[in-house]
Write a structure and sequence with these properties.
Layout (H helix, E strand, L loop, with lengths): L3 E3 L3 H11 L5 H19 L5 E7 L4 E7 L4 E7 L6 H7 L4 E2 L1 E6 L6 E7 L8 E5 L2 E2 L3 H12 L4 E9 L1 H10 L4 E7 L2 E2 L5 E2 L5 H6 L3
Parallel strand pairs: 1-11, 4-5, 4-6, 4-8, 8-10, 9-10, 10-11
Antiparallel strand pairs: 2-3, 6-7, 12-13
Helix pairs in contact: 1-2, 2-3
InterPro entries: PRTase-like, PRTase_dom, Upp_B, UPRT, UPRTase/APRTase
GO molecular function: GTP binding; magnesium ion binding; uracil phosphoribosyltransferase activity
Protein name: Uracil phosphoribosyltransferase
Amino acid sequence: MENVFVFDHPLIQHKLTIIRDETTGAKEFRELVEEVSMLMAYEVTRNLPLEDVEINTPICRAKCKMISGKKLGIVPILRAGLGMVNGMLKLIPAAKVGHIGLYRDPETLKPVEYYCKLPPDVHERELILLDPMLATGGSASAAIDFLKKKGAANIKLMCLIAAPEGIEAVHKRHPGVEIYTAAVDQCLNDHAYIVPGLGDAGDRLFGTK
């Protein structure tokens, strides 16, 4: 699939299996989501531009590499996306963090924005949109719509698990957005849950039902 990157690293796959397990409690679930997010951050940021700089090591003057002033932004979709933020910030602590809150209108079934707080220079930043589950793709597509309306031009979507239906829906509306995931599962069930999936990510992160 074009513009879809699936991470098959053994550490990511091992931790994802424990995350999926219904016996994994909220504390361990939160810790593992953070760890997997940190591991995925390595790959999501792989193509950041580098520049040559000169520094003094304890031995001599040396020419080395540093990230070339690229401004990054992390935008979790509330509430489940919050579980992925700390893992990302451990690797890129200078990134600014925005938030997007969405709910589904019970009559139209369309996502409605109830909260949006973004860095003021969002148009200058490469944004990484975070949501553990890409199911129908409705929330992710709506969030990307909102980011673009605020001036964002460079957006990536990062999730733990994606359904083929969600990938198709996002790319139908936003074909240029790259999707990064640890797994592409089989399908959605009649209740729009990913199969086999991991259940409701928000409930499992925060111990709610």
